[in-house]
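Box 3.1. Reading complex inputs
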Amino acid sequence: MSELLEVQDLRIRFPAPGGGSSVPVDGVSLRLARGETLALVGESGSGKSLTALALLRLVPPPGKIDPSSRIVLEGLNLLELQGEAMRAVRGGRIGLVFQDAMTSLNPVISIGEQVRETVVAHRSLRGKDARERAVALLDEVGIPGARARYRSFPHELSGGLRQRALIAIALAGEPDVLIADEPTTALDVTVQAQILELLDALRTSRGMAVLLISHDLGLEAGRADRVAVMYAGQIVEEASTSRLFRSPSHPYTRALFGSIPRLESAVDRLVPIAGAVPLPDAWPPACRFHPRCPEVLPRCSVETPPVVPLAPGESSRCWLLVKGAR
Amino acid sequence: MIGSLRDLLRRSWRHSSGRWGVLALTLLILVAAFGPLALPDPAAIPDAVAGATPPSASHPMGTDQLNRDLLSRVVNGARISLSVAALAVLLSLTLGTLVGLVAGYAGGWVDAILMRGVDAALAIPRLFVLLLLLVVWERIPLGALIIVLGTTGWFATSRLVRGEVLRLRHEPFVLASEALGAPGWRTMTRHLLPNAAGPLLVAATLGVGDVILLEAGLSFLGLGVQPPTPSWGGMVLEARPLIVTAPWAALFPGAAIVATVLAVNLLGDALQAALDPRSA
Amino acid sequence: MIRWILRRLLQAAATLVVVVLLLFVLMRLAPGDPLARLVGDRDLAPGEIELLRERYGVGRPVLVQLRSFLAGAARGDLGVSIEHYPDRVTSLLASRLPATLLLGGVVLLLNFTLGIWLGVRQAVRRGSRFDRWTGRLALTAYAMPGFWLGLVLVAFVSLRWQLLPAAQMTDPVLPPDADLGTRLVDLLRHLALPALTLSLTSIALTMRHQRAAMLSVFRLDYVTAARARGLPESQVRWGHAWRNTLVPMLTLLGLWLPILVSGSVFVESVFNWPGLGSLAAQAIASRDYPVLLGTAMLVSGAVVLAGLLADLGYALVDPRVRPS
């Protein structure tokens, strides 16, 4: 497996109303190889959706990506691209499936048209060929009667079909990386599994890398190869899925699983963690989880914990893992 | 209600356009109120034979076709135009609010009939309604003009107020008032009306600008303020034959209209932005 | 779908009936006798006066008047002109309508193309100098009375600098065998100033509406999503964002008609453009009530029609509105 996407020390700054700035994404590093699925898990406010937008350089103004960040796609430095080159990457090399299909689809344009225009923007297909390709894509994502559905409008479709349409649009540019931002949050439980199956199948059939963003350690995380847990703008733990579910090494991950270390299987109901998720303009000092951590040490509120490597591709940001820290 | 209005005004002061509007308008009102005291009699004709003379030291805006000082005519015209507009808008506001409150609060067939009427009235361009009412008069008294202007401009306001009433009709605080046995009109004035105060103020301000333009137009057609009472529109009408030889006679009154309407609209905009910052 | 159209048609018809009723009430409200002036200005034989009184129903009981008024309106008979007696009002209106349609059409075209483009640009560059200054300029133009701007333009552009003609629709001294090209140029030269006057004084309205509509749409998810697909920015702006502002803009189209019509009364009379506006202005001067009433009725009917067309337009433009 080759290294496809590498993100180093991604930092996003927003100017704060009274001067100064808030940093909702603060030093995120990720690696994605071709053919693998990485799950990025975090609660609302952890900065995961912003991370996804940053990969496409679509951070909403007045937010800015810090120049010390690095985003490299197969050797291509995305932060140095200008205009047309970046446009080609969007959809053409990295596809983004947004969270809410109802608001991410243009309500006055048919879904077929929205797929087709993306095909036209990236492939050198025109007219009838582009239309055929669009129908084929709608079919590929499992929309029954794709040809007839081409002319349907978003409000005429069920939630599951809308999500599939969104995926079709994201695939239209034949991207190497597919980012799915909480693709199942707005869907019924029965449909959730179908969508995830679809994404899995597409990944294999197209040889893509998939970044699956989710707000809990549920279905999405369970299907990934690796999991990165995000808290307060940082990755606090990164591990293979099996290891993470077997023995999570960060107190936050453990809290997410809602139990003490040693887990048999993922739970689908969360036990609430005491306290609230901090806001970007007021990150707690040192370890950002320390105010809510059930295993907090005196050191945690004073010194920022290092990123402790545990195994190849696995790490955790916690003092508990540093020998002699207690 | 007063508190929220004061807050609104304070917020609109932050806008540069609002500030200019308020300043300009205040200046205009002051000039209109006190200017005529310091200026020569607008009806005075020093030298009829001389006709229109260009702007000079003694006549900063020149003189009109009857050699009357244009500056004092324009300033006196300000008095007329501003008071006519203010009074007419006040009348429209009152009528519109009444109808809107009743329609929205009563609902049912009262609402249906009233709104059907308002829809039809809105279909007839206001100018034509005014023309039809005013054209048969030989000489239109100023009071009648104000009443006519006022009674033709309440339709949109009624829709606005009705909209607010409908929006809040079933809110807990309204239902509470009714449950406590408050009569309809009391609920309407104490609870529903204050909420519409903001949009009403914006509509009223912009309405003043509209009425100034309407009155000027009517005066230009001879149907508005009657001579010799100075009005800006009337001055442009009288200056029309001299437009090439003595352009200032038409330029200054017109510029006065532009300045006033612009000031009013800037103020209205700033109020609007203060009400709904998203539209700024 | 058909049922929905029929329902809207019925609603429009009902509104029209109320409009006619309102106009009747206005007519009765206006003090004075519309015929008195006529009698004073002209020498009419006693029999003629009685005939005219019959015609206009003056003196007959209200309900009878109402009935003949309504019947006349339904038939399309709007009475006889006083000034241009015995010309029928309808024929007068018909003869003047084309000129106003031409002027109105050109103004609408100008305003919507320029106004939309400027409004979109303002929204995309919100808060910039361009946004603020175009807004202020447009507002200043909006504050100008149409008759004043028209006069100023005539005075300078036509009379002083002799660049464009000062009045009317065509050059009266154009040779009868002049070719189409010359005629067209002549028409355009006459059209220029009145169209410019009407457009400038009202473009602020279009710009504002477009700007506001664009602002409400531009930050929505589907616009960002369109950008994320790698669509060119111009396509995102026009094909996705602007496309969703068509509904409020259609509403504006419905509001436009009364403004255009009122403005043209002044502008057409200043430029002597032979349309409905100048007809109305002349009717005012000669106190020709039937013509004024007829024009009011025609214009109101057009406004109701425009509203109906706008409603149909919503269904065309926004698939969510269509009754399925």
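In summary: The mean pLDDT of chain A is 86.
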